[in-house]
Amino acid sequence: MSDASDASADAPAETLSNKAAKKRRRREPPPDPTPLPGLVDAHTHLAACGGRDAESVRAILGHAQAVGVDQVVTVADDMVDARWAVAAAEWDHRVYAAVALHPMHAGDLDDETAAELEQMVRHPRVVAVGETGLDYYWPGKSDDCASPEVQHETFRWHIDLAKRVGKPLMIHNREADRDLLDILAAEGAPETVIMHCFSGDRNVARECVDRGYILSFAGTVSFANADELRVAAELVPDEQILVETDAPFLTPHPYRGQPNQSYCLPYTARAIAEVRGVSEEEIARLSGANARRAYNIPLP
Ligand SMILES: [Zn+2]
Ligand SMILES: [Zn+2]
């Protein structure tokens, strides 16, 4: 989950009909990209994208597969979401799940939720512990968000869980670079760490790369104001890069603000190919292979 607010201030001179047209466009899904085969959406939220039951999940995956996105990892934020994500992974062979308490919901961790999460994480179609980590943007802005201290505790518990079950740790980091890297170092990171929706600068990127972490890039890498993120996307070695939508948030340029879904992944993959000066086929092949290796999932 990321911040979905992309609303720009309305210019005072704007006419009413202009405003209405803009509003309509914002609700409209982006057009299908030209297919780019071999991709895996390394992080999405199918329930928030309109997934309800087996049929609606199949429809989202069918749309994605038509443009080359063969498999997805759907990520849970809380306990209700986690149960749903595991069910979705059972409904459709193209779907895998990641379960954890998002830092916002870090306060939900108690003996009961810990036991249930641990049981879910051991499910064969659950391929990562996530998203967990730290979010320093929301505390103080939202009463529902756990305090940094509570987030630290719950993050440590998730790190330990990932090590015990031998599955990747999928990290959410918002404005918490230093504390997040320090806690990971102090606790000892699991073998595979995935920095979902990587948002750091080149120094954070280098530190993560040196530690062997995987950097997963979302549509933000294509945004006009994301020069520093593009530097990060350029410096990460071939074996340590993933591509994700984080849908329904962070729709890639030029559709920023419109609803995102896994089928939009080729737009972001192409933006990364351009930054790295390689072909789009190469990025699809590379990031797809990395996702299958990191999450230990078979070819479709
Ligand atoms: Zn996130
Ligand atoms: Zn997310």
From TrEMBL:
SUPFAM superfamilies documented for this protein:
Metallo-dependent hydrolases
Cellular component GO terms, alphabetically? cytosol
What keyword terms does UniProt attach to this protein? Hydrolase, Metal-binding
Instruction: List where Low complexity composition bias occurs.
Output: 1-11
Q: Which CDD domains match?
A: TatD_DNAse
A molecular function (GO) term: metal ion binding
Q: Which residues bind a divalent metal cation 2?
A: 172, 196
Looking at the record, which segments are called Disordered? Answer: 1-41
Q: Which domain of life is it from?
A: Bacteria
UniProt binding sites for a divalent metal cation 1: 43, 45, 131, 246
> What protein name does the entry list?
Putative deoxyribonuclease
